[in-house]
Design brief:
Strands 6, 7, 8, 9, 10, 11, 12, 13, 14, 15, 16 and 17 form a 12-stranded mixed beta sheet that branches. Strands 27-28-24-23-22-29-30 form a 7-stranded mixed beta sheet, sandwiched between helices. The chain has a 5-stranded mixed beta sheet with strand order 4-1-3-2-5. A hairpin with a 5-residue loop joins strand 22 and strand 23. It has 5 domains: 86 residues, Alpha-Beta Plaits, CATH 3.30.70; 85 residues, DHBP synthase (Alpha-Beta Complex); 181 residues, Alpha-Beta Complex (DHBP synthase), CATH 3.90.870.40; 124 residues, Nucleotidyltransferase, domain 5; 199 residues, ATPase, nucleotide binding domain (Nucleotidyltransferase, domain 5). The radius of gyration is 27 Å and the shape is globular. By secondary structure, it is of the alpha/beta class. The protein is built from 23 helices and 30 strands. It binds zinc ion (2 copies) and fe (iii) ion (FE). Fe (iii) ion binds next to helix 13 and strand 22.
Length: 760
């Protein structure tokens, strides 16, 4: 028999997913000698044996790879045989630059669930059980390569039994870096008034929750605050303590059966709830609800999540079947993730702490996804379970950092053809969040082994993310217009780089003309854009104040729609302003003082929502629009007039007639549900009509939809369906949220395209 030797290099998500034991077993199966090892960014394999076995081995690498593995590239070269005697798994090799793709955190696998449920198993009821197929990853990795000493598990030396499993290539825990057991692993305890309770802390926590207490629970990516979701008093107390008036709380439910009791779940929602990523899934609430109405007031949906760690599984077996599980933070601060910071920050919020001594190295919120009837899913927040998964870019680039937007911030690091968006960071307007932002950037850069030479940022000069970009030394800066970034993100994640009609519909973004944009139609590719249409402008009386107070936007639209009559109509609608405020707003609308013009689509929805009495007081971002969507009668087909005018070659989408008709119907006593639906329908018709005009003029048939407005399911599905019926090709976000979380991806894609043109 002639002996051949072949070297393989495999890149992708191949570490921390049981890849080396898989290679080992495959080599044994084909009777090959050689070795396998992790490097910082890939797995290297060498095998020796007869040629047909090597060929079978090579194809097995692709076809039989473990579930969690994701192979990006596999290269093979021939070499002279050196006479390996056996097949070995070698120590990892650290390299200077990593092409490393770090795995995301994975929900507990069925095998581990079985173990914690079997009294005979040595991991019976052990809350930190995991294996190569599941468990913490991103949140505990401090450095690459992904090996135990480089994680927060380094402080837990393995016991003999764990070490044996860890070293046995045929065991499910072979090189399961965070593996642990009750003998050697992390522990959980309960703290009440700095008293530590070590006996049966999970049962004690469940008991507290049953009694209506609020408990801070350390999870995978940070602390959560929990309380019994059926208990009105407990939920209301949590709202008071957190300073959160109406923003919906997410619920953890015992299992999929409990989820079905609470919500109407189609197959897609069930698949989402049970997926490895285990996001919070938004689904239609069943009425009457078994949980407190205070969980999600004014909302038809509940956000549900099924236990994703053994700790949660064990807790949910004993506590009420549905508990509120909301980020452990004060209003909009980043979530607490160290035991120390939880004690200081959450002591006034929680009656007790379910602690553990496995450190979280980098915090990560829960992801939030909403699946839609047509099969699409809208990602509202991309974090745990998804990060740090890479998104393929349609073009190549050197290392670029996109610093993101101000709200719902993420940043994004790109190199080669990969872009890695960060976890949801939050709104950068508090010092704490900004600190977390900088920490997360430093961490991801070092984890991925890439230092950016180019930084792309929003044009808004006072965004903290823009200021951060300016503060970085020795980099080339590229300013990117906000709505161009939206469209570029949608193009890039769909692998496209041709010119499209981009509809960027959101709250606000800094325009290139000093006004505030937000209802924009762009002709755009990655490198450049032209603004070819926008919503008709109205004033934002008081600037930022008009974003926080939807009544002010209603006043602005009333001013446009009813001229001198506007204050009288405002009174008839019950929009009350204090006398002084009324005078100030009048002055602002007449003179434009401190009242910038905006073409925002989001502000239009705010105005309608306030004017027809659905949401006149906003307590969280997006509330007026969300409640307007929730109120809309799904069977209503009607719509209101609008006009599309031309101004300097641009389409002006005039929704003022729409607003006027809606108000007139409200005054005539038509139900808000009907009016809400007709307003949505009108916007869909107006946008579709504008697209048709642009197709005729420009000959472009490709459409990209982005911006926070597309989190609205009526607009998302309604417009997409209509455009497709009209023969358009429609791109939507599938991997990133349509809101400002996608801005960082758009920024790196645009910078990459600009740099590529410069180089050519
Ligand atoms: Zn497992
Ligand atoms: Zn052990
Ligand atoms: Fe935006």
């Amino acid at each position: 028999m002639e002996v051949y030797r072949r070297k393989f290099r495999i890149t992708g998500v191949v570490q921390g997913v049981g890849f080396r034991p898989f290679v080992y077993r495959l080599a044994l199966k084909y009777d090959l000698s050689g070795w396998v090892r992790n490097t910082s960014g890939s797995v290297e394999v060498e095998v020796e044996g007869d040629i047909s076995s090597i060929k079978a081995f090579a194809s097995g690498l692709q076809t039989e790879a473990p579930n969690l593995a994701q192979i990006d590239s596999l290269s093979a070269i021939e070499a002279d045989p050196v006479g390996y005697a056996e097949f070995l798994i070698l120590e990892s090799k650290a390299e200077e630059t990593a092409e490393g793709v770090i795995p995301a955190d994975v929900a507990t696998c069925p095998d581990c669930l079985m173990e914690i449920a079997s009294p005979k198993d040595r991991r019976f009821e052990y809350p930190f059980t995991n294996c190569t197929n599941c468990g913490p990853r991103f949140t505990i990795i401090q450095r690459v390569p992904y090996d135990r000493p480089n994680t927060t598990m380094a402080t837990f030396p393995m016991c003999e039994d764990c070490a044996r499993e860890y070293q046995d290539p045929l065991n499910r825990r072979f090189h399961a870096e965070p593996t642990a057991c009750p003998v050697c692993g992390p522990r959980v305890w309960l703290e009440i008034d700095s008293q530590r309770i070590d006996t049966d802390p999970i049962s004690a926590t469940a008991e507290l929750l049953r009694k209506g207490k609020i408990v801070a629970i350390k999870g995978l990516g940070g602390f959560h605050l929990a309380c019994d979701a059926r208990n009105d008093e407990a939920v209301s107390e949590l709202r008071v303590r957190k300073g959160r008036v109406a923003k919906p709380f997410a619920l953890m439910v015992r299992d999929i059966d409990e989820a079905e009791l609470l919500c109407e779940l189609d197959d897609a929602s069930k698949a989402l709830l049970l997926s490895n990523q285990r996001p919070i899934a938004l689904a239609r609430k069943r009425e009457p609800s078994r949980v407190s109405d205070l969980v999600a007031p004014g909302n038809r949906q509940l956000g549900l999540v099924i236990p994703y760690t053994p700790l949660h599984t064990l807790l949910m077996q004993q506590c009420p079947p549905a508990i509120v599980l909301t980020s452990g933070n004060l209003s909009e601060e980043p979530l607490a993730f160290t035991n120390g910071s939880a004690r200081t920050k959450l002591s006034k919020l929680a009656d007790a702490f379910l602690m553990n001594d496995r450190d979280i190295h980098v915090p990560c919120d829960d992801s939030v996804v909403r699946s839609l009837p047509g099969g699409d899913a809208i990602i509202a927040r991309r974090a745990r379970g998804c990060v740090p998964e890479a998104i393929d870019l349609p073009i190549n680039c050197d290392c670029i950092l996109g610093t993101g937007a101000e709200q719902k911030n993420t940043f994004c690091l790109a190199w080669g053809r990969k872009a890695v968006p960060s976890q949801h960071i939050g709104d950068l307007d508090t010092a704490e969040t900004f600190d977390y932002y900088q920490y997360a950037i430093d961490h991801l850069q070092s984890l991925l082994g890439h230092q950016p030479k180019v930084i792309a940022h929003d044009l808004h000069p006072s965004y903290m993310s823009s200021r951060y970009a300016m503060s970085r030394p020795n980099v080339e800066l590229i300013g990117v217009q906000h709505h161009h970034a939206h469209i570029a993100a949608c193009l890039a994640e769909n692998g496209r780089n041709e010119r499209c009609i981009g509809l960027a519909m959101d709250g606000t973004g800094y325009g290139t003309d000093g006004t505030i944009w937000g209802g924009e139609i762009l002709l755009a590719d990655l490198a450049s854009f032209e603004r070819v249409g926008h919503f008709a402008q109205v004033r934002m009386p008081g600037g930022e104040a008009a974003i926080r107070d939807p009544k002010r936007m209603a006043a602005a639209y009333l001013h446009e729609a009813f001229a001198a009559d506007n204050e009288h109509i405002s009174e008839c609608l019950g929009l009350s302003f204090q006398a002084l405020e009324q005078r100030v707003i009048r002055h602002q609308l007449e003179t434009g003082l401190n009242s910038p013009l905006t073409s925002s689509a989001g502000r239009f929805f705010d105005a309608i929502s306030a004017a027809i009495g659905i949401c006149a007081e906003r307590s969280f971002e997006g509330q007026p629009a969300i409640e307007l969507e929730m109120a809309a009668d799904e069977h209503e087909q009607g719509s209101y007039p609008y006009s599309i005018d031309f101004n300097a070659g641009r389409l002006v989408l005039n929704a003022i007639p729409t607003f006027k008709a809606a108000v007139e119907e409200r005054l005539a006593g038509i139900a808000p549900a009907t009016i809400a639906a007709k307003c949505h329908n009108s916007v869909i018709e107006m946008l579709a009509c504008a697209c048709e005009k642009l197709r005729e003029r420009e000959g472009i048939n490709l459409i990209a939809l982005s911006g926070g407005v597309f989190q609205n399911a009526i607009i998302h599905s309604g417009l997409k369906d209509k455009l497709q019926t009209m023969g358009f090709e429609v791109l939507i976000h599938k991997k990133m949220p349509p809101n400002d979380a996608c801005i960082s991806l758009g920024q790196v894609a645009i910078a990459a395209a600009i740099l590529k043109i410069k180089q050519e």
